[in-house]
Write a structure and sequence with these properties.
By secondary structure, the chain is an alpha/beta fold. Helices cover 38% and strands 12% of the residues. Helix 4 packs across helix 7 and helix 6 packs across helix 7.
Amino acid sequence: MKLLETHALLRTRRAGVLLHITSLPSPFGAGDVGSAARTFADWLASAGFTVWQMLPIGPVGYGDSPYSSPSSFAIEPTLLALEPLVEAALLTKADLKLPVRDAARLAQGNCDFVANRVFRMARYAKAAATFETTNGAKSREYKRFLERATWLPAWLSFIAGNDTAARSMHEFIQFKLDAQWLELRAYCAKLGISLVGDVPIFVTADSADVRANPELFRLKKDGTPEVLTGVPPDGFSADGQLWGHPHYAWDAHLREKFAWWISRIACAAERFDLIRIDHFIGFHNAYEVAAGAKNARKGEWRKAPGRELLTAMSKRFSTLPLIAEDLGALTPEVEALRDDFGLAGMRIVQNAFWSGKSGDMPHNHPFRSVVYSGTHDNETTAQWWRSREAAQKARFRAYAGHEAVHEAMMRVVLASPAALAVLPMQDILGLGREARMNLPGTALGNWKWRMEPGAAGKSLAARLRASVEATGRG
């Protein structure tokens, strides 16, 4: 086949930061797409970064996980900023006032997702009611949104059932989220910042996607999964990771020429410039575990029609706006699938210093790749350093120098030959165990880290800009 071109954003050296929206400062318990997001974009630009990468923005699932979303198309409701609703006269300033006993606690420290949701949803309900009584639903913008959001009825049925008031509220939330998100993307574009999103390869069994399209998933007659998704035992977990999602009925996707998948990526492409496909290896083959299994120790690999899927996508996009999360059991077949479609893979510098001979060693990185110190699934660099053996520390020091370990790691990442270098905000700030975003194989207690107000300051931006420019990135 003719090899496809790499996306334009991955043809020049760029630098970016990984920070999820909920990790932004907020007075309400977790970040959103409002003023703090714009402030962070301003800081990125001042620091010389041109890419902002986030985790999936779909409605969160069990354990507040963005990777177990009940919708592949909707946006997490609590990402809707409240201040613009006051500006639109849908709420009052008094509506945003927190009880004194809660204000200090919710403004700092880790995310409090429960309090955040309770506070926000009550305000969304009031704003939606005001929107309805002022005939907002009759506006041209609202009608255009409904025409574009062909996925919305399935989401409303899932989240609200036949509750008319709840359906109206969630319809309003998604309408306003769509507008706020597009405004944020346009704001970032003016600053020269591109947005990178994240799409989990699988969806949960109890989701709007499965309910609306059961024929596209391998389900029993009672609607439960025939087999479950996961990965076998690895360095993260001796039991493997049992994700518990249903596998795709690929024959059905082939018959519809992958229309659902193309719609999913097209929706993400309206919100992001590039999209990381989590567990890209699953497009070649996927690990199946028996339904009812307690862990992922026993399973088998089944082939997937990834080449046919990417071929269908390439007819929709001139260059595929995808980054392949190809970490794990990388085989020549997966490499060929990635390379034939012009996709950049990933490199994790934390993985490079086990023996010093790894292809992950920074000087071995291919240009068509995205390099990270670590991802949301890894320890922060400071935490990683404390758990290294003496031989690994010696290899790192010989390679990277003897400055503060997080600063040495940042310099190594930025100097990599990879086209795009991405630094987790926790590593930029030199944070430790307390700032880890996710521990794979655990369902609860993750995703909570939140940046302290003022942590991203001017002096830090100036130092970073010097490093970004010195390594030929922009």
